């Protein structure tokens, strides 16, 4: 098994944390994982994307042209990576910011109103966790308890108070694609 994932959006949308979380959780489940970040010239507001490779065997290269899964947080990212997905792959996109219809005949497309759903929790910062929840629902690779433990790890003691709202965001995202 080898799974390639690309996550892309504006800096500050949680693109990197989402990718790190998936790579860490895969590792905690006994899988091999690679996380490769790519930043634009700015941190907040600039473009950011990351590539994650997960496998049950050693991974010899972090490079891939087309991914199995694509998580898109904004329209510029859709323009850049929308066609860089394998046939039969999954496209999850932020339908709160991307208003045009995303249509691919040979791919699974999941509109996720991640920004609106995060706003409904009065915490727009957890929009990435909404998207993560949608992704977890449809892909089925990760165990929920491992994702939560990985989230605790990345939040650390300084942000432990954010765990509950992040869990709610994951749950709302999970339900959004049923």
Automatic annotation (TrEMBL):
Signal peptide: none annotated. One of its GO terms (molecular function) is oxidoreductase activity, acting on the aldehyde or oxo group of donors. Keywords: Oxidoreductase. Pfam families: POR. The keyword Oxidoreductase applies. The keyword Disulfide bond does not apply. Residues 11-175 form the Pyruvate/ketoisovalerate oxidoreductase catalytic domain. InterPro entries: 2-oxoglutarate_synth_KorC, Pyrv/ketoisovalerate_OxRed_cat, Pyrv_flavodox_OxRed_cen. This is 2-oxoacid:acceptor oxidoreductase family protein. It comes from Peloplasma aerotolerans.
């Amino acid at each position: 098994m080898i799974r390639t994932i690309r996550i892309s959006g504006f800096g500050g949308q949680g693109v990197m944390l989402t990718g790190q979380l998936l790579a860490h959780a895969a590792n905690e489940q006994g899988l091999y994982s690679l996380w490769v970040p790519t930043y634009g010239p700015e941190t907040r507001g600039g473009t950011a994307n990351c590539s994650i490779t997960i496998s049950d065997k050693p991974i010899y290269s972090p490079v891939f042209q087309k991914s199995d899964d694509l998580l898109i947080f904004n329209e510029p990212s859709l323009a850049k990576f929308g066609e860089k997905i394998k046939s039969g792959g999954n496209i999850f996109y932020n339908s709160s910011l991307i208003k045009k219809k995303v249509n691919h005949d040979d791919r699974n497309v999941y509109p996720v109103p991640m920004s609106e759903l995060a706003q409904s929790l009065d915490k727009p910062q957890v929009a990435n966790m909404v998207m993560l929840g949608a992704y977890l629902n449809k892909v089925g690779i990760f165990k929920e308890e491992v994702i939560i433990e990985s989230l605790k790890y990345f939040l650390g003691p300084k942000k432990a108070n954010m765990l509950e709202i992040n869990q709610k965001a994951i749950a709302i995202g999970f339900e959004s694609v049923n």
